[in-house]
Amino acid sequence: MTYVVTDACIRCKYMDCVEVCPVDCFYEGENMLVINPNECIDCGVCEPECPAEAILPDTESGLEQWLELNTKYSAEWPNITTKKDAPEDADEMKGVEGKFETYFSPEPGEGD
Hints:
The protein has four helices and four strands. The chain is α+β, with helices and mostly antiparallel strands.
């Protein structure tokens, strides 16, 4: 088992999760984070820290595409271990449906 970041993170990107991760397995894209499933130790401390409820265990059904996306982009995006400010419109974007189709960016973030 591993944890994955879902589309609920897109344009919210609160980053509370990166500060609690004991193995630094978060990677930063332009407008979302992902978890490297090969580095994640399944401790679960990140899940309750996410205000957008974007982090879920990959054992939940229907998360296969998110496991693939997290695997792909954690290999391309820079590592992030320090919390940064969330986007100004993060609270407005929280809970918006269909964010992947509308807002996802494959571009990397800045990382640490």
